[in-house]
Structures are given as C-alpha cells and as structure tokens.
Design brief:
The protein is built from four helices and five strands. By secondary structure, it is of the alpha+beta class.
C-alpha cells in the first residue's frame, strides 16, 4: 500500500510549484479583470494565505535547507506571476493627460552587494474626468506641463500605465525561471513518503 502511495506523493511534491503558479495567476487575473471579482482587501488576504500556505507545504514536503531555499524561490516566482497578471490585465481606456507636477523619491538598498539606489518618479496628472490622478514610473517620461497618453482600467482594478508600456513577458519569464528552479529542487531533494514518521 505504501509503495502505491509513494509515486503519487513524490509527483505531487514536484508538481506543486506549477500547480500553485497556475492557481495564483488565475486568481490574480480574475481579481484584476473579472466583473465579479472580490474586493481588493479580500483578494489581497486570500492571495497572501494561498502563497504562504503553498510555500509552507513545499518546505515541509521537500524538507531541509533545500525546502527552505526552494520555498523562497517559489514565493518570489508566485509574486512575479501576480505581477505578470497585473501587466496583462486589460486597460481598456486611455486619456491624454497634462503633467501637473513631477516628484521623485530615491529607494535605497542597504548592505554590501545590495543593488544600487533606485529613483521612482511620480507624475501628478490632470486628466479628463479626474482619473487617473497620478502615474508612477522608474524613468522620467515627461516634464511638468507636457502631455502624455495614459492607459487605465475604468473599474480601477489595476494601476494606470503609460500607453504601450505594459510588458507582462518580463515578469512572466523571471517567474517561470524561479518556479523551474524550485521544481528542480523539489525533484532533487523531495522527502520520501513516510520519512520522519513514527
């Protein structure tokens, strides 16, 4: 009986990252684009519980330091799946907006070998109808007084973007790479069924 269960248990352990990524991406896509999507708070709490639960299960099933390291890669991969869903979400409306003010904020990283400081640009906008009121970018796309074209979701479920700027493939590729690494770790370090059981 135990011999019949072991292959299923091992397959489930190795398949967990892919199944979790599908569930997280599907849930995020529904929350960002679905007409019957839950409120933002419910979606955030539900998503956090799903990601933490999957990572905890992965760590336990794989075991050891491989399980902890793989769970970290899995968590990052799942967060990138959410980012890809956000980028892929339809922003069906667009507006030409005047840049009222440009504010910058520097995000510093601490520690040796940390990435360099990153500048975030926040553009305060005057758009027809009053929305969107601001746009955040990682580069200076316009100066005060200039006009820019902004794509946005009329239901306000996803953040506005500079028109033509969304790139879901970038987050998707990084997420796929991290999920593949966590799958490889699960395959190499998976805990045999029944180990450490009394």
């Amino acid at each position: 009986m135990t011999e019949m269960v072991r292959p299923w248990w091992r397959t489930a352990t190795v398949a967990l990252p892919g199944l979790a990524a599908g569930a997280v991406y599907g849930g995020a896509n529904w929350c960002f684009a679905g007409s019957s999507a839950p409120s933002g708070a419910v979606a955030l709490v539900g998503g956090a519980v799903l990601v933490l639960g999957v990572c905890a299960a992965y760590s336990v099933l794989v075991g050891g330091t491989g399980g902890l390291f793989g769970a970290l890669l899995l968590a990052l991969g799942l967060l990138l799946a959410v980012a890809a869903a956000d980028q892929a979400a339809a922003r069906t409306a667009a507006a030409t907006c005047a840049v009222r003010e440009v504010r910058t904020r520097i995000q510093s990283s601490a520690g040796e070998g940390a990435p360099p400081d990153r500048t975030v640009y926040r553009f305060e906008l005057d758009c027809p109808g009053g929305y969107p009121a601001e746009l955040k970018e990682d580069r200076p796309v316009a100066e005060r007084g200039q006009r820019i074209r902004v794509a946005f979701d009329p239901a306000h479920r996803v953040s506005p973007e500079l028109q033509g700027r969304t790139r879901p493939w970038k987050a998707g590729l990084w997420g796929a790479a991290l999920l593949a690494l966590s799958t490889v770790i699960a395959w190499a370090k998976r805990r045999p069924y029944g180990e450490d059981r009394a």
